[in-house]
Amino acid sequence: MTKPVKGAVVKKAAARKPAAKDATAPDGPAKATAPKKATAPDRPKKATVPAKPPAASAKPAASVKPVKIPRPESHAALVRRARRINRELAEVYPYAHPELDFENPFELLVATVLSAQTTDLRVNQTTPALFAKYPTPEDMAAADPEELEQILRPTGFFRAKARSVLGLSAALRDDFGGEVPGRIEDLVKLPGVGRKTANVVLGNAFGVPGITVDTHFGRLVRRWKWTEQEDPVKVEAEVCALFPKSDWTMLSHRVVFHGRRICHARKPACGACPIAPLCPSYGEGETDPEKAQKLLKYEKGGRPGQRLKPPADYPGQPAPPMGAG
């Protein structure tokens, strides 16, 4: 009885051998298809095709790119770039003007001194009462200091400003026959008068070209890489070298207009800036066009300007007088 059993076992074992061979049979094709597995890395290549970057670069905000300035930039290239910005600003602000109300050189001189550490709007709202009471240097030099301080109070630092106004009025009366001098050498000798004030008066009351380096002007010319200087006198010298003398006064107005309306100190409206393609600092502020539009000020934002008596070609609204609405 045991023999058949052994024979049966042999048969079962023999039956298993082909099964083992069949199990190894796929190994041959697997080796043959190894090249197919080798092509598996091709899949990541297809996945890494840069399909997304073009979509990202198609955003409206990314369509404006800052100008690439070679380092170091030649003086000739800097001059070309600076003058092109000036031409663009001339088209944007053909009505640029001094934003202080004045009728004569004396009023402009006093108003400019008062504009320190305050807005031109606040000065313009203060000077009507001031000049109504003290219309000439002789009148203002004889003013009661306390009464003068009360008139100047809205402009801030009114005690120091009253001393400056009294001092320069007395100097005009005693040294210049009651007339504002037309030379920078004489103007800077007056109490409270520096180069910035002198250039404002010379450029706008006497037609003598000059660059006015206030906080707006200094901020923008550094953003545009026209200069790296911080000292106003050095800024004035370097910017003057980029332009013909005949452009200096209007250049000052255009740059200041742009700084007050669009290229603000804390949050520039880059997305609404007409010279964005020329600006190496594009992107420091809001680049979304709709959001940037909401940052615009004065006539660009649909609001009144700073002058109570603006020029006839000013496209915005006059500023309201003191105490109005």
Quickly list its features.
325 residues; mainly alpha; 53% helix; disordered N terminus
Describe this structure as you would to a colleague:
The chain has 325 residues and is mostly helical. The longest helix has 23 residues, at 2-24. Helices cover 53% and strands 0% of the residues. It is globular and about 60 Å long. The protein has 17 helices and no strands. It has helices at 2-24, 27-32, 34-38, 42-47, 52-57, 75-92, 105-114, 120-133, 137-141, 145-152, 158-175, 184-187, 195-205, 215-223, 232-240, 248-261, 289-293. 33% of the residues are buried. It starts with a helix and ends in a 32-residue tail after the last helix.
Q: Would you list the SSEs in sequence order as H and E?
A: HHHHHHHHHHHHHHHHH
For the residues shown, what is the average pLDDT?
85
Number of strands: 0
What structural class do helix, strand and pairing data support?
mainly alpha
Range of helix content = 40-55%
Distance between the termini: 123 Å
Helical segment count: 17
Low-confidence stretches: 1-62
Shape: globular
Q: Give Rg in angstroms.
A: 37 Å
The fraction of residues in strands falls at under 5%
Major beta sheet summary: none
Short description:
It is built from 17 helices and no strands.
Write the layout of secondary structure elements.
Blueprint: H1 2-24, H2 27-32, H3 34-38, H4 42-47, H5 52-57, H6 75-92, H7 105-114, H8 120-133, H9 137-141, H10 145-152, H11 158-175, H12 184-187, H13 195-205, H14 215-223, H15 232-240, H16 248-261, H17 289-293
Helix pairs in contact: 7-13, 10-11, 14-16
